[in-house]
Amino acid sequence: MTDITRFKSIFTGLDIAYGTYKIESANGNGKQAGKAVVVRKPPTDELWQKHLEGVEPSLGIIPIRSDNSCIWGCIDIDQYPLDHAGLIKKIRSLELPLIVCRSKSGGAHVFLFVKEPIPAAEMQKYLKASAALLGEAGREIFPKQAEILVERGDTGNFLNLPYFNGDDTMRYAFKDDGNAATLEEFYALYDQFVQDKNLKFPEETKAAETPIKDGPPCLQAICAQGVPEGTRNNALFAIGTYLKKAHPGTWDNLIVEYNFRYVSPPLPNNELQVLIKQLSKKDYKYKCKDAPLNSFCNSGLCRTRKHGIGAHGPDSPQLSALSKYASEPPLWFLDVNGKRIELDTESLFNQMAFQKACVEKLNVLPPAVRKQDWEQLLNALLTEMVESEQITVASEDTTVTGQFNDLLEEFCTHLQQAMDRDEILLGRPWTNDDEGRTYFRMKDLNAHLVRNSFKALTSPKMAQRVRDLGGEPISLFIKNRAVRCWRIPRFERQDSPFDTPEQKKARSPF
For 50-74, how does the pLDDT look when each residue is reduced to its tens digit (9 = 90+)? Predict the structure, then answer.
């Protein structure tokens, strides 16, 4: 039996839920179809064991814990094909303590490990900064949430773990020479690169060396690593925008110097003069969405820089990491400017209801956008949610059907029972022990549901739920008249009293 102790300690995350691939059907060719879901149950040792032994389904762990801390995080680079050796070389040249693993699809899961739990927000910040330095800005970061509302059913996004099937895996870590690492060699990599909780952020290591002082981190990375091929004009235009802010009197001479120092090959002088003339006309904003800036973007850090995007950054709230708790009705959880908010379907679908929810829960009023823009944004969030497999399976008692079944059982067994069937007219359920069936009027059941504030089902839907439990309508002749009733299989009753702990006799203080 494979020892899971070390592996589990390295990848421990949320202890009340895990991710898996749920098989739903089998196609004609024998291939199984299904979907990835979050199961709201603890990841047992058996699941960890099966993962390392290669027994399907593989295990997905949610890195963020109930206290919003974590001991590992990951940059998910879903690019195919991917030069893993080149990525590792770049990571080491930047002196980043990251470990690269091959993902299930052939991309890369780039891990950061810490010895002691740190806030998930700090892990996100470090990984976003690292991704920006690597030219991989915009990649998915795990943990995807800085906080989760566990008590409301929220969990977070899971990541499929490496080393499914142990050493006979395609999800292995890479050693620095580009070769696959065995599980034991992965443990050695972990020991080499695991960090303490006092992380030194990537930008701190390079800030003193950059020619873009107090400027956008994307330009700092581009100047340090070289302008990517095919992006000379955009890069120099952004550098010129920075130089006008930082050196308004000499920027036009400095851009010539920067062109020869940081652009290879340099932009021809005639093209550079056209660019300088264009920059002279007015003060431009950074074109953050254009290459190469977008690949190195670290907007959170850029906003803090004297010559960064600052107040010119987007005013609209940053919405991300939508997830669904599949109760009835469903609950939705969304990051708004890094803060987690719970929404019902109406508050998610209706922009005005969403604004109201943000005011009530976050003290923020997001600006209204056009209906078609809101729908486009919502579709993007829903698509990402499905693709990132962020749908949590609700327990039965959180569904409408589960709540109805519980209240029906309570009505049939826990309330005052009829001694004979005539008492059905008093609103009491009557159980025929010989038949093993319970009889009641639907209106009396409905009154019990209303007393318990349950109004989720119409009468026809309640009737269907009763039929689903083996019930059927029937007429009984009671007190010389026909009474419309329902009968269902009898629920098990608690015939013996519950054991109660003995009370210890109070001892006299004297």
Answer: 999 999 889 999 999 999 999 999 9
